[in-house]
Every structure is written in structure tokens, then in C-alpha cells.
Amino acid sequence: MTATDSQVRQAVVRPQVQPGKLFIGGEWRAGTRHSDVIDPSTGRPITTVAEATEDDVHDAVRAARAAFDSGQWAGMSGRERARVLYRVAELVRRRADELVAVESLDVGKPVALCRAVDVATTAGHFEYYSALAQSLDGAVRDIPLNAHAYTRREPLGVVGAITPFNFPLILSTAKIAPALAAGNTVVHKPAPDTPLSALLMAEILTEAGVPDGVVNVVTGGAETGEALLRDPGVDKIAFTGSTAVGRHTAEVAGAALKPVTLELGGNAANIVFDDADLDKAIGAVIKAFVFNSGQFCMAGPRLLVAEPLYDTVLGILGDAVAGVPIGDPFDETTVIGPMAGERQLTKALEYIDLARAEGAKVVTGGDRLDLNGGYYLRPTVIAGVSADSRVVQEEIFGPVLTVQPFKDEDEAVMLANSTPYGLAAGLQTQNVSRAHRVAARLRAGIVWVNDWALLDPAVPFGGVKQSGFGREYGPEALSAYTTTKSVVISLD
Ligand code: NAD
Percentage of residues in the chain with pLDDT exceeding 90? Predict the structure, then answer.
């Protein structure tokens, strides 16, 4: 890359986000401490962001509390809130190019995928919850007392939303859209590695008419997150991230008796049965582990293949995976960009070394791609792994696929369910009965058949086991941001 290219990239970001500032109570406030944001495709800094202190977080929570208590948002009718949320969806679509540029630069996402998935889904969240905001109804209950009983669905208050680095726009708006639809106010803390689109969204939400203080953004790392978790003014925690930090989040929320939603790590199995349409299945297998450079909680990094197909599938995969376009995320033809940061790349490379040390065979990839100083990892396929090895059991979170053979359906299900995680799973088969039978036996929050990562704001997702609890997306998410109040009126 030339210096001029780099300057162009910096110019993309500078006018569009408020570098170094926090968004509190509808105002941009300069931070007192700052950290660099790195372009993962070059390893060079692109801008700086503020690291919110405990006082900043407290101010943001106070602003959110004041906005909630004023009733200016919670007291609106659902239909009025819906209009604002719909305008957010329209603005996201209108400003799609800016959002794509910022998100791609920050995370290293290929622009074509970022446009089709991240930005489209972000608009979809606001559109979907704009519709649901209009039907947030209670129910009349028929009771054997001389009384009229009904329920009201009410917002919880201030939501503390903490999100990870890999899908900044999608994962934050999966919380913000339903939280706002229900009438809550929000303090959002994005990941320190990829905070830029949260700042741009703050601007878009304001432009759409979300009142001051209803959404606040505090950038920063673990210390900022900890301050948000522990702030007594927060009524609900919505956390997406690793299982380790999720466990800590649950402990803090538990001690304070706060409701919490946890979307945590994953390590999904993708099962290819011997009756699969092989061309289609290979497409699903590749998509499942290279999408977003494998930094996808719902990725399918564990491939289970019916024994008769094992050698054939490995042969096809070796060639096909090596041919997936990897490179500059700003090139429209790129499918695999860099990993989001040096820590993510180093972790994935350590797992590949571990697999080699455990005697596994790297079929393709296995090394860093030397390009512009970026954090590129060639998509990697590893065979000859044992079911209890660390590369199979643990979440690698990179474009790394392990492959294991299985004898029959029972063994496939047993292997698929054999890790501590339970976020997603998939199976490739042309047998409809098998599809339903196996889908029911897989311990996961979502199961895909004959494809991967088919997601929509209307379809709930979330985990079982160590992948967390609670659901995002769908009407389920709206429920998670409301509480039910019963009103019983004597008719005497
Ligand atoms: P992470 O757990 O390191 O960080 C997530 C967020 O928590 C970040 O904003 C971080 O700053 C914050 N944080 C860290 N320590 C904290 C503390 N002590 N108190 C409060 N907040 C704290 O995760 P990551 O590396 O950013 O993301 C990758 C992980 O996220 C993977 O495990 C992945 O599977 C998971 N993930 C899950 C889903 C899902 O929907 N289930 C989606 C995406 C990512």
C-alpha cells in the first residue's frame, strides 16, 4: 500500500466520526484519556478514541436515567417511537457508504460483505423493531373476582449494552433497536478495538430524532465496561462477548440482582452427511468458517464428515479454500479480509501451532499472509485432529477449520454436542426426516440445514450451555427489554 492510499483511508474516517469524544446526554464530550484505533489491513493507527473513566460512565448513566425519567421517550406512544426508529433505518440506508467505509476500515471487513450483511442488517433491526414497537400490548385477564385485570408491558429503564469487536454495528443495534422500541434508554460501550461505527450511529440516531440522553456512547476497554456493569443506575445488562467476561458479567449482575442477557462464545459443528448435495455442502462449509475471517460467534469451525466422504471432502476443500479471494477489504472482490487485530491473529496462529504439535495435519493455509503489514491469516484446514484436542474443544475465532470423520448419525450428534458451547450448529443432508431428527438433537440456539448463517432480525438467536442465555432478535428480544405489570381494579 502507498502512503497516499493510507491517507485516503484516514480521510474516510476523520470527518465522519468524532474522534476522541464521548456521546453523553446528546453532547460530544472530549475524553481525558485516549487510545489509538488500528487499521487491521495495515497495522497503522487511523484515529484515536476516548477511554471513558468511571466518572464519564456515571455521567452517561445519569443522562440515560434523566432521559428515561423525563418520559420524553418512554412516555411516547409505541407508534411515535416506531416513526423515529423507522427514520433510523432510512438514514442507515441513506448513509450506507459512510457506515461501510468506517466499519470496513475499523474491523477489516470486506466492503461488499459489510454492505450486504452488516449495514443491511443494521437497517433491518430498526425497521423490524419499528414494527414491533407498535404492538407492545398487554392482555386482559378474565378472573373470578369482581375486578378488571390487565397487564402492561413496560420498559426496564437504563440498559447497559456491552459489545465485542467482531460485528460492531449488528451486535450493538441488535440491543439498541429493541431496547428503544420498548421505551428504554441506553448506554453503549463498544469494543476498544472497533469503536468507530458506534460513534457514527450516535450521530444517525440523533439525526433521526432520538431525544438527547436516550442513547449514550462511552468508548473504552475493560475498565470502562466494569464501571458500566457496576453502576447502580443501570437496570439491565445486555452483554455480547467471550464466555470468560460473560461469566464475570453474570456474577456482577447477579450480586446486584439485575436482569442480564448473555450472548457468549461458540464453536459450532457443521455435519456433512453422505446424502448431502456435495457442491452445496462445500459452499456452506467454506462460508461457515471464512466469513468475517472466522471471527464469528456462529461460525462453523468444526467440520464433521461422513466417513465415506472424508477423503473426497478434504481433497475438494484443500483446493477450494486456497482459491477464496483474500486481501484488501476495500477491494470489492475480496471475500476474506484481515483479522481485526494483532491479538486475534496471534491467538489463531498459536492454535495452529498447537494443532501441529498435537500431530494434526494442516491441509491448506496455516500461515500469515504478508500483505501491507495487515493481520491476514490464510484460511486454514486441519485434519487428523482428535475430538478432545484443544483445537477442537476451544474457540479459536479465526478462519481455521478442523475436520473429523464420523460413522453414523449417533456419532455425528455426539461429536457435535461434545464441546462446552451451544450457540449454533448445521447439517448438510437431502433427507428431510434426517434434517428434522438431527436438528432436534443438536444442543444449540440455532440450527441451519443446507446452508450457514441464514440470519434475520425476525429469527431469535442466542446460546445454551456456555454460550449464554437469553435471546436476541425476534419478539423474544423485545420481551427481554420489558417487564410485565399487572393492574387489578376493583369493580365494587
Ligand atoms: P470480550 O469478552 O473480550 O469483550 C467483549 C466486551 O466486553 C468488550 O466491549 C470489552 O471491552 C468488554 N469487557 C472486557 N472486560 C470487561 C469487564 N471486566 N467488565 C465489563 N466489560 C468488559 O470479547 P471480544 O474478544 O471482543 O469478542 C469475541 C468474543 O465474543 C468471542 O468469544 C465470541 O464468540 C463472542 N461473541 C458472541 C456473540 C454472540 O452473539 N453469542 C457474538 C459475537 C461475539
Answer: 95
Q: Are residues 149 and 79 in the same domain?
A: yes
Q: What is the mean pLDDT of residues 364-378?
A: 97
Question: Whole-prediction pTM value?
Answer: 0.97
Ligand 1 centre to CA of 219 (Å) is 14
Q: For a substitution probing ligand 1, which of 57, 166, 171, 419 has the most ligand atoms within 8 Å of its CB?
A: 166
* Domains: count for the chain: 2
Per-residue model confidence (pLDDT) at position 20: 85
DSSP collapsed to 3 states, 162-195: ECCCCCHHHHHHHHHHHHHHCCCEEEEECCCCCC
Please give the number of the atom of ligand 1 that sits closest to the Cα of 189.
9
Strand order in the sheet with 446-449: 361-364, 380-383, 400-406, 302-306, 269-272, 424-428, 446-449
- CB under 6 Å to ligand 1: residues? 162-167, 171, 189, 191-192, 221-222, 225-226, 229, 240-242, 245, 248, 263-266, 297, 395, 397, 423, 463, 467-468
Residue 12 lies in a domain: no
471 is in which domain, residue-wise? Answer: 22-264+467-487
Q: What is the CATH number of the domain that holds 227?
A: 3.40.605.10
